[in-house]
Amino acid sequence: MLKLALLFLVISIIAGVFGFGGLSAATAGIAKILFFIAIVIFVVFLILGLMAGKAIF
Q: What pTM does this model have?
């Protein structure tokens, strides 16, 4: 998921350099959404991992 966010960020930067403002804004928005989804998934798995660790001990 983070790889896709970084890919869209790079595409956004390249599109911005070449003057495609609409495409740049769209890909930046997609990158932002993917980044926040990845962060949420990370936090959920972190909490689940901590809870599973406590259940074992």
A: 0.77
What is the structure's pLDDT at 57?
66
**Three-state secondary structure readout of the chain:** CHHHHHHHHHHHHHHHHCCCHHHHHHHHHHHHHHHHHHHHHHHHHHHHHHHHHHHHC
Distances in Å between the Cα of 12 and the Cα atoms of 15, 20, 26, 40, 45 are 5, 9, 8, 23, 29
| Per-residue model confidence as pLDDT tens digits over 19-53 | 998 999 999 999 999 999 999 999 999 999 999 88
Distance CA 18, CA 54 (A): 52
Instruction: Domain of residue 41: give its range.
Output: 2-56
Rg (alpha carbons) of the chain, rounded to whole number: 17
